[in-house]
Structure formats: structure tokens, C-alpha cells
Amino acid sequence: MTIALDGPRVAPLAGGRPESLVVLLHGIGANGDDLIDLAQYWGMLLPRTEFISLNAPFACDFAPDRLQWFSVADRAPAKLLEGARTAAKLLDPCLDTLLAERGLAPERLALVGFSQGAMMALHVGLRRKEQIAAIVAFSGALRDGAALRAEIGGKPPVLLIHGEADDIIPFASMAEARAVLEALGVPVAVLARPGLGHSIDEEGLIAGGSFLRERLSPGTSERQ
Predict the structure, then answer these.
(1) Residue 1 lies in a domain
(2) 198, 201, 217, 221: which is the annotated catalytic residue?
(3) Where residue 195 falls among pLDDT bands split at 50, 70, 90?
(4) Which residues does the UniProt record annotate as the domain Phospholipase/carboxylesterase/thioesterase (predicted)?
(5) Contact, 164 vs 195, CB < 8 A?
């Protein structure tokens, strides 16, 4: 499979070459435009960071003019894991290319995902052999805990943010993911948002921005 991933991007607010990279992964039925505005919220916090919001590689099951990382037509765990693995074969080398093009080390990369994109961020980010800086997962889930135990690579800090009124991906998914990650020794923080549905709110944006700034600020890798 030779699908090249790309999407909208925002250059570092400070100008010049980026010193870090945040890759945004949208949810099912959307595209890269859906999350690129996060760069407006976080650019001031991370003025030397480039933001890229990748378009998922496949047409959406229920909206052919939109995109998805993998099909959810069959929700059997094995089929969902197979779909995530297929998408990972495209996403993982894309991340390598993006880093190489910018001359950045893996620890200067953070993944941020929403919904299905959060699942992909967790799936790929935790399996990379060279540890990345951070993963922020909004309204996502970790469906492959058993497989992850055998396949985990680096253990980057993870922030899970989820609305308590989410009617798409149950709020309980956050606790399930936290339990798996803690058992694997992955540093994990969580933020529950009372009354919030399947969405990202201001408090989540603030928490995500602070988390990324802490992990990507100049000199962070030297302090670890």
C-alpha cells in the first residue's frame, strides 16, 4: 500500500525551522481541516512548533466524501485491531518522514488525536521503538490492551481527556485506558469533563496545551 499522508499545516509562530512537531489526527467522518485550528490555541504556547493535521487515508463508510482511519462497519475487536494495524502501516512511516524532513529527533514529536484519531495516536505512539514526547487523546479509547502489552515500544506521557456525557465513545473508556496504561508503566494523566459530549471544550484545550508545552518546551529532553 503506497498512500502518502498529508494535510493542512501551520508553521511555527516564531518563524524559522521548527524545533518540535505536533501531529494532529482527526476522527471518523472528518479530515485534517477539522483539527488544524488547534494550532491557533496552542501556537502561542509553542511558538517554535509546527502543527500538521493529517488526512486519514480511507473514505468514510457512511460519508464517502469524508475520511476515516479504519472501518467501524464490523465492530468485532479483531476487525478493529486489524483496521488500526493497516492504518498504522501508513501513519508510522509518515511520522518518520516528517521528522527526517525537519531534522527532528523522535522526542520532539507529540501526537494529538480526537475520537478515532485518539485511538490511532495511542496505537501508533505507544508502539514506536524510539519514544516520542507525548500523546494527547481526546474522547478516545484503547481497544487493544492485550496486544499492546506484547508490542509496546516507548512509554511517552499520555493525557486522556473525555466528556462525561459522551454518547459516541463511552466515558468509561477513559478509565479502561488509564488502567491498561498504568499497568504497563506508562505515565498517564486524565481529565474528565462534566456535561461534555463527544467534543473538545476550552478546559480540554487548556489542559492539552499545558501538557504539550511541558513536554515540548526547549530543553525538555535534556531534563528527562
Answers:
(1) no
(2) 198
(3) very high
(4) 17-212
(5) yes
For 215, list phi and psi in degrees, rounded to 5. Answer: -85, -25
DSSP state of 219: T
Catalytic residue among 20, 53, 115, 173: 115
Give the total number of structural domains in the chain. Answer: 1
Task: Look up cell 465492530; give the residue.
Answer: 75
Q: Is 20 a catalytic residue?
A: no
The x, y and z cell numbers of residue 154, run together, are 516507548
In a domain, 71, yes or no: yes
Residue pointed to by grid coordinates 511517552: 156
Helix axes 116-125, 77-102, angle to 10 degrees: 70
For residue 223, is pLDDT > 50?
Answer: no
Distance CA 144, CA 130 (A): 20
115 noted as active-site residue? yes
What pTM was estimated for this model as a whole? 0.95
CATH of residue 204: 3.40.50.1820
Distance of alpha carbon 120 from alpha carbon 90, whole angstroms: 11
6 catalytically annotated: no
